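Customer ticket, subject: "Can you confirm the structure for Anti-sigma factor antagonist?"

Message body: Hello, I'm evaluating your service for our small team and ran a test protein. I'd like someone to confirm that this is what the system normally returns, since I don't have a reference to compare against.
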Amino acid sequence: MLLYNIGKFSTSFYSKLVKNTMNQQVQVIKLSGIINTANSQELREEITHLLNSGTKIVLVDCQDVIFMDSSALGALVLAFKTLRAAGTKLFLCSINEQVRILFELTGMDKVFEIFNNQDEFNQIILANS
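Agent reply: Thanks for trying us out. I re-ran your input and got the following:
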């Protein structure tokens, strides 16, 4: 597995976005720390890069996310719409209770397919791809 450190977000906690190549058409974006207005643009830029590189499946792993605000959710919704229009699928995994509540309150838990962890994603999505 190749890991690429895309950079540090400028927040009060150390945050990072790591891209993990599972294979040529599947990319994992691993978020950590606080994802908010200050750094959600970097997430949007990475999604655009993946779209332009021909990625067919994007998994956003939120295991290490401490907090996510509405601008981060907005970035994910925009990414979902943009990727779907291009025939690319976006999935989420490993969301914590705070993020799950945000998704439930906004109804986004019905829009996004959310897996408990990467293993579940691999078993359900990659096994059928």
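A couple of notes from the result: The beta strands are 2-9, 15-23, 26-35, 57-68, 89-93, 113-115. Helices lie at 40-52, 70-85, 97-106, 118-124. Feel free to reply with more questions.
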